[in-house]
Amino acid sequence: MNTQKAIIAFSQSEKIKCGLIWASQILEVYMGLPRMDQQGAERMIKAIVGMIAHEVRLARNLVKDTTWDDVEKHMDMAMVMINSQVVHESGFHLTRALSQVTSIGQRSLSALKEEGLL
C-alpha cells in the first residue's frame, strides 16, 4: 500500500469506525424504546447507516482496495435488515463491518509506521 493510500485508508477507517459505533449505540437505544417511538428512531438509524455506507464507498473508490468490498456488503445487509423492519438484526452486520474496518485501519497504520510517518 503506498503512503497516500495508507493515509486515506487510515483516515477513512477512523471516521467509519466512529460512525459504526454510534450507529450500534443508537440501535441499542432503539431496542429499548416503546413501539410508538421506534418509527422515528428507525428513520434516524437509516440515515446514519446510509451516511456511513457512503463513506465506505468513498474509501473504496479513493483507495482502490477490494478489502472495502466486504465492509460495503455488511453495510448493505444492515440496510436490508433495517428496510425489512428487522432493525435489531442489523447490529450483527454493523459489528462485522466494524471488525473489517478495524483490520483495514490496522493495516494502514502499520504501513504508515513502516514509512516512519507515525
Can you describe this structure?
- With 118 residues, this protein is mostly helical.
- The chain has a single domain (3-114), classed as Up-down Bundle (Four Helix Bundle (Hemerythrin (Met), subunit A)), CATH 1.20.120.
- Helix content is 86%, strand content 0%.
- The protein has 4 helices and no strands.
- The protein has helices at residues 3-32, 35-63, 67-83, 90-114.
- Helix 1 (3-32) runs antiparallel to helix 2 and helix 2 (35-63) runs antiparallel to helix 3 (67-83).
- The mean pLDDT is 94.
Q: How are the SSEs ordered, and which strands pair?
A:
Elements: H1 3-32, H2 35-63, H3 67-83, H4 90-114
Helix pairs in contact: 1-2, 1-4, 2-3, 3-4
Descriptive keywords:
single chain; 118 residues; mainly alpha; Four Helix Bundle (Hemerythrin (Met), subunit A); elongated
Write down the secondary-structure element order.
HHHH
Major sheet summary line: none
User: Strand percentage, roughly?
Assistant: under 5%
Shape: elongated
Number of domains: 1
The radius of gyration is 15 Å
Task: Give the integer mean of the pLDDT values.
Answer: 94
CATH topology assignment: Four Helix Bundle (Hemerythrin (Met), subunit A)
What distance separates the N and C termini?
15 Å
Helix content: over 70%
The CATH architecture = Up-down Bundle
Number of strands: 0
Structural class: mainly alpha
CATH class descriptor? Mainly Alpha
CATH homologous superfamily annotation: IL-4 antagonist (De novo design) like domain
How many individual helices?
4
- Spans of at least 5 consecutive residues with low confidence: none
